[in-house]
Amino acid sequence: MEPRFNLFANEIGAKIGKRIANVSMVIEQSPLSKAVQELVNLRVSQINGCGFCVDYHTKEAAAAGETAVRLHLVAAWRESTVFTDAERAALALAEEGTRLADAHHGVSDETWAQVRKHYDDDQTAALVSGVAMINAANRLGVILRNPGGSYEPGMFSGMTS
């Protein structure tokens, strides 16, 4: 599978990519744990079918110390015992926030209550923004047909400015 278009080889695309990277850097540097960030990014990417982003976030999570068992079970987190209540709240928000068109009311009050029970304001801001940003990145990846398999952890370090 070949990508349709190299967004970063285009002047406008490169500017957009840097802005997305800058927003992502703010989220990465937030008090929301790296584990939750990567689990959420992985789950949203699975739902959206973005091979590049699944590859990226699986490898980044593993490089940050995430276990293979948890990475393999993230797609079936509701039927798994390896996630904390806080992680389950974040994964529920990620799914409901990704499947907006499939849900009558978007994110449920029950899910929102669980998120607020486990995350402070700064973590909630990072979590909600993270769900939005990974959905945007997934759309770029799927539209452009960026394939998974070639990502190396840290390969986009230093992309912001």
From TrEMBL:
<dbReference type="InterPro" id="IPR003779">
    <property type="entry name" value="CMD-like"/>
</dbReference>
<dbReference type="GO" id="GO:0051920">
    <property type="term" value="F:peroxiredoxin activity"/>
</dbReference>
<protein>
    <submittedName>
        <fullName>Alkyl hydroperoxide reductase AhpD</fullName>
    </submittedName>
</protein>
<dbReference type="Pfam" id="PF02627">
    <property type="entry name" value="CMD"/>
</dbReference>
<dbReference type="InterPro" id="IPR004675">
    <property type="entry name" value="AhpD_core"/>
</dbReference>
<feature type="domain" description="Carboxymuconolactone decarboxylase-like">
    <location>
        <begin position="27"/>
        <end position="96"/>
    </location>
</feature>
<dbReference type="InterPro" id="IPR029032">
    <property type="entry name" value="AhpD-like"/>
</dbReference>
